[in-house]
Ferric enterobactin transport system permease protein FepD
Amino acid sequence: MTSTPTAVGRVRRAPAATVGVRRRTLAVIGAILAIALAVVLSLAFGSRPVSIDEIADGLFSWTQGRTPSAIGAIAVQERIPRTVLGLVAGAALALSGALMQAITRNPIADPGILGVNTGAALAVVCGIAFFGISSPFEYLWLALGGAILTAIFVYNVGSVGPGGSTPIKLALAGAATTAALGSLVNAVLLPRTAAMDVFRFWQVGGVAGAGWGTMATIFPLLAVGAVIGLLCAPGLNALALGDDVAVGLGVHIGRTRVFAAAAGVVLCAAVTAVAGPIAFVGLMIPHVVRMLVGPDQRWVLPLSAAGGAVLLVLADTIGRLIGYPGETEAGIVTAFVGAPVLILIARRTRMRAL
């Protein structure tokens, strides 16, 4: 008699496992198709629509190193760098947001809300205003330093008091830090018209200034940050069960947090250095991915990267269309889409510690 319920339980659990595998498989296939569609749309639409034949001519000309034969094909070649930067930057920002949410166990954590973007922006602003920097390499290291210092400051402030660092305290510390650093950015820029002219387009966030040399500067850091972040996935799964359980499973919780946090900060800072402080990508995408495939970080992290790439490329394409004959920066589009998502998450999340 005792074996029957067990057998029934196994039968009932099997379909659930099958559905989980099916859903994750469909999510992977959907992500691949969405990336392909986003790339085609990015190459096809802009100040001048481009046909499929012109896209093919532009791509073949680019790969073979020859001059394209049509104006549309030339437009395709001009759009290739910004499409590649959109894919890479979106993937890095979404992966950074997923890592920060896993570390803090906070669904509204992302580089923008925790102040990392603003810290990187302040460092770049100071470099432009006081030291006259202009190269992507200088932007990169200043943004990296500002992001790291801001992340350390927010974590220390959020850890003060009983209970140590909690999701709510970290979010409040990040929001306060973002407001303070944003004020400092304005204080530095307002008296300096020349610095403001250099900074104002970068501040909005976008991929219009993409170039192969710029991307070559950040690719090594992005690759290292992405590999480290993905390797932290099993440890982050254990941390989600609680520190005591994670220690019992043999996970070094301090090392896992440090490596995952470092990877998230590096990814965010490298993108901010070349594309500006693009907000909400790291907030929206991991939340949507968890709704689709569950909380397993081995799936959440890579699918978040894919989703972020799709979102930023589509945001850049939409910005080119709605801003015609000019263009609207991708950072404005992601903020417009991300604000309702933040409100939805806040309404659905129970803040038990309040």
